[in-house]
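Sequence in, structure out.
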Amino acid sequence: MVLTSVTDRLGNAAGSAVGAVSGRFTDRVIRLGVTGLSRAGKTVFITSLVANLLNRGRMPQLLAASEGRIQASFLQPQPDDTLARFDYEANLDSLLRPAPQWPPGTQTISQLRLSFRLAPQGMFAAMAPSKTVHLDIVDYPGEWLLDLGLLDLTY
């Protein structure tokens, strides 16, 4: 029983050490879900957020941007092929045309991946490789929120 306890502690310590070391070499993924009632502005919010993150000069409050650590930001294919891609380009085009129009509302779940290549920071920054952080934005239709209350009804 004592031997089992000691081996469990050693195993947990080794797992923590491996996790800490491997975390330095793997990409980080942040998932952001955007939901709200119909016509609340989810599509416009996501489109504006992505446009501003791609043009980092417009976001001086973003710590990594103000420190000059963002080397590049770019769109990538979404990680889940079963979800539709959020149509960022078409939405931005409808907002920026000479006669701007609201983009069409969200009809289904969609997703967009925005990636950032960040310069390392800290004492060993000169020896460390750049790190990539992925921001997965998921757009969820607001009408579906209202349906949640109907799940428990029998009619």
